[in-house]
């Protein structure tokens, strides 16, 4: 009897030790807001076409709602295994009217569907750094985040969300959006250990879609960043290159490139953010389209439970190779009230504009304004 009790006690102790070496965390964000957006397109004759959008749900909130599970298992000898599975959720079910764009290779941003896959990856960590495989965030996104006062929020007025659509001759459209994926499939990512505040990440990914015997869509993605983080300072330089081909031939706007330098410094009474970014894409004829050089300065000031954010951006945007450069400007103001450590009420106003596009047939200027209010809870 005593031996049986001792055996059960030993087994329980062993099981407890094994469980202690593994951890699984469920986390998420529930964020619902109201957003009003006005877009004014002005043509060469000065005529203005206005579009008003009122929305509650996905992309009308400060940040996208999500639910995720992540875990770490201690494998011994300094080696650990990790995984992360995360889904995004819309506050409204838009599946019936959703236009699911993109290919089977990758998804650049969340689409209109009510549930989207954000992260799905596994990896190993140890003294060598970390190696992660699967759907994850490109390395350049860390540079955007370092210099973005809005915490990559969904409202316009910042370099990260600067994405007016330009209608050119005929039916051709051009987008001023950042030239990198927000999340990418099939990435292999390696991050070095922290060395006196410095670390680096390199990434490689390749996807292929052979839906038809005569069609071969291929995408190759390269990414990297260099990070310095110590005390109140953080500086990250990030780069992304995405090349797309059809039947081994370059396609229109088939090579996207994005470089970002993001930095922030915490003075305690205020935190300052700086972003310098350059992006474009190359056509099959090696012409440079959607070229954008955007610079942004922001400041965040805490006053008790209130946090006031203000940022301004400036730069240039050229939709077509050789065209006249358009002027890009924008600003965002935000007031965030922390009801608790996990719950925040917010109000945000933002605007951005492209002007001086003399070579486009329809849009000479695009002026966007939006504001939103809402509540976000994290867990």
Question: Care to give the gist of this entry?
Answer:
The chain has 379 residues and is mostly beta strands. It has helices at 2-20, 140-147, and strands at 22-42, 48-56, 65-76, 79-89, 115-126, 129-136, 165-167, 173-175, 184-191, 198-212, 215-230, 233-246, 249-266, 271-282, 288-303, 306-318, 326-338, 343-355, 365-378. It has a single domain, classed as Porin (Beta Barrel).
Written account of the structure:
Helices cover 7% and strands 61% of the residues. Strand 11 (215-230) and strand 12 form a beta hairpin. The protein contains 2 helices and 19 strands. With 379 residues, it is mainly β. The model is unreliable at 1-20 and 94-112 (pLDDT under 50). The protein has one domain: Porin (Beta Barrel), CATH 2.40.160.10. It is globular, with a radius of gyration of 23 Å. A 16-stranded antiparallel barrel has the order 1-3-4-5-6-9-10-11-12-13-14-15-16-17-18-19. A two-stranded antiparallel ribbon has the order 7-8.
What is the architecture at the second tier of CATH?
Beta Barrel
| Secondary-structure element string | HEEEEEEHEEEEEEEEEEEEE
DSSP helical segment count: 2
Q: Helix share of residues?
A: under 10%
Which structural class is indicated by helix and strand composition?
Answer: mainly beta
Stretches where pLDDT falls below 50 for ≥5 residues?
Answer: 1-20, 94-112
- Mean pLDDT across the residues is 86
Cα-to-Cα separation, first versus last residue: 47 Å
Count of all domains: 1
Number of strands: 19
Radius of gyration, in angstroms, nearest whole number: 23 Å
Shape: globular
The largest sheet has its strands arranged as 1-3-4-5-6-9-10-11-12-13-14-15-16-17-18-19
């Amino acid at each position: 009897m005593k031996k049986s009790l001792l055996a059960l006690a030993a087994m329980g102790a062993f099981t407890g030790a094994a469980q202690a070496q593994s951890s699984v965390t469920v986390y998420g964000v529930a964020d619902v807001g109201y957003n009003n957006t006005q877009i004014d397109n002005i043509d060469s004759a000065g005529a203005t076409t206005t579009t008003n959008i009122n929305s509650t749900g996905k992309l009308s909130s400060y940040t996208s709602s999500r639910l995720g599970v992540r875990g770490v298992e201690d494998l011994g000898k300094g080696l650990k295994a990790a995984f992360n599975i995360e889904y995004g959720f819309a506050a409204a079910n838009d599946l019936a009217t959703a236009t699911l764009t993109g290919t089977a290779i990758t998804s650049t941003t969340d689409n209109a569907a009510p549930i989207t896959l954000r992260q799905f990856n596994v990896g190993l960590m140890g003294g060598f750094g970390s190696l992660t495989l699967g759907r994850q965030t490109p390395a350049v996104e860390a540079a955007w985040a370092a210099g973005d006062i809005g915490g990559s929020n969904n409202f316009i007025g910042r370099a990260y969300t600067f994405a007016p659509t330009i209608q050119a001759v005929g039916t051709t459209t051009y987008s001023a959006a950042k030239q990198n994926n927000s999340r990418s499939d099939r990435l292999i990512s390696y991050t070095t250990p922290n060395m006196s505040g410095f670390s680096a990440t390199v990434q490689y990914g390749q996807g292929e879609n052979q839906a038809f015997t005569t069609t071969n869509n291929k995408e190759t993605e390269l990414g990297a960043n260099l990070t310095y983080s110590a005390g109140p300072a953080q500086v990250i330089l990030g780069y992304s290159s995405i090349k797309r081909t059809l039947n081994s031939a370059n396609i229109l706007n088939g090579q996207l490139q994005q470089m970002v330098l993001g930095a922030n410094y915490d003075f305690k009474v205020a935190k300052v953010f700086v972003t310098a970014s350059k992006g474009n894409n190359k056509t099959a004829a090696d012409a440079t389209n959607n070229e954008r050089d955007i610079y942004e300065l922001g400041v965040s000031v805490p006053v008790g439970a209130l946090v006031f954010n203000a940022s301004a951006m400036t730069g240039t945007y050229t939709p077509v190779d050789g065209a006249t450069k358009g002027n890009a400007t924008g600003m965002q103001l935000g007031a965030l009230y922390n009801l608790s450590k996990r719950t925040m009420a917010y109000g945000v106003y933002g605007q951005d504009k492209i002007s001086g596009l003399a070579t486009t047939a329809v849009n000479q200027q695009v002026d966007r304004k939006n504001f939103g209010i809402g509540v976000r809870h994290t867990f």
